[in-house]
């Protein structure tokens, strides 16, 4: 009897039941979404979240520059500093992802949307409209900042992402690629159903690690590019400020984040989650 029990319990690992369920891949094009109110509600949520994100963070940047402006009676050591700016960006992402995750997924970033599209988490239609909503929200958010603080906005550069003196465009592009990789990799890890099941004994609040990732990347890359890692953030500031310097280097803040998001999606889906091996195993079993 004991041997029978041992034989029953000693099953190969391949027959053990999964303790998590992977959601089915999103269709490439899903026209049915266009008939659902939840789809438009998600687009509105992305628009408003990005608007609020840019409004608070750009105000923080401009406020710090004014407080540290010695010529305007400020203190060079005054204001929130780089640490405070990084907290503003990371904290707002934490808050907004928490608020919108159940409605739109809380992307608030075209690079995040692009990465999730590559991983088949969202359809092409949803990805494109999310990016449009995010960019429009960013423009409106920065527009509110300029409307309320027009003198300071123009004087302190409008929070536009530009290369810092002493750094070339290659360095800036590399910083944007790696910074966005960290962010999108964190998004995949924090929302992975396998991780949530296996580590269920550890309470994980997904917006928290995502917000911390944004915070840490800002600490590292503010002195280089002002930190983009979000094409909508860079685009909104460039459109409203509309200076030559912003547009000359603007391509860095699209190319870098999209390359970083692509690398993060490939790394997580095909290496960490062994997507290529699973596909090959399925092919062999059907042969």
UniProtKB/TrEMBL annotation:
Region annotation Disordered: where it falls in the sequence: 1-21
Membrane topology: Multi-pass membrane protein
Family: Belongs to the MIP/aquaporin (TC 1.A.8) family.
InterPro entries in the cross-refs: Aquaporin-like, Aquaporin_transptr, MIP, MIP_CS
Keywords: Membrane, Transmembrane, Transmembrane helix, Transport
Transmembrane region(s): 39-64, 76-103, 123-145, 204-224, 251-272
Gene name linked to the record: PIP21_1
Subcellular localization: Membrane
Main location: membrane
Protein's UniProt name: Aquaporin PIP2-1
Keyword Nucleus tagged: no
Presence of the UniProt keyword Transport in the record: yes
């Amino acid at each position: 009897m004991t041997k029978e029990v041992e034989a029953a319990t000693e099953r190969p690992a391949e027959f053990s039941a999964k303790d998590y369920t992977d959601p089915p891949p999103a269709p490439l094009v899903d026209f049915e979404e266009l008939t659902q109110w939840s789809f438009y509600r998600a687009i509105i949520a992305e628009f408003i979240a990005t608007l609020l994100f840019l409004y608070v963070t750009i105000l923080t940047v401009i406020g710090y520059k004014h407080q540290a402006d010695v010529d305007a009676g400020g203190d060079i050591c005054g204001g929130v500093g780089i640490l405070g700016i990084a907290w503003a960006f990371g904290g707002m992402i934490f808050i907004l992802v928490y608020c919108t995750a159940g409605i739109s997924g809380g992307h608030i970033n075209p690079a995040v949307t692009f990465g999730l599209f590559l991983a088949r988490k969202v359809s092409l239609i949803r990805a494109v409209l999310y990016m449009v909503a995010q960019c429009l929200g960013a423009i409106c958010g920065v527009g509110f900042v300029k409307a309320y603080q027009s003198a300071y906005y123009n004087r302190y550069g409008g929070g536009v992402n530009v290369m810092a003196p002493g750094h070339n465009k290659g360095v800036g592009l590399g910083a944007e690629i790696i910074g966005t990789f960290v962010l999108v990799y964190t998004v995949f890890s924090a929302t992975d159903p396998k991780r949530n099941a296996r580590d269920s004994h550890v309470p994980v609040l997904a917006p928290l690690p995502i917000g911390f990732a944004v915070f840490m990347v800002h600490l590292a890359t503010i002195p280089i590019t002002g930190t983009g890692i979000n094409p909508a953030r860079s685009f909104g500031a460039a459109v409203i400020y509309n200076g030559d310097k912003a547009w000359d280097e603007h391509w860095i803040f699209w190319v870098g984040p999209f390359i970083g998001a692509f690398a993060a999606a490939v790394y997580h889906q095909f290496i960490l989650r062994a997507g290529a091996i699973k596909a090959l195993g399925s092919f062999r079993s059907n042969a």
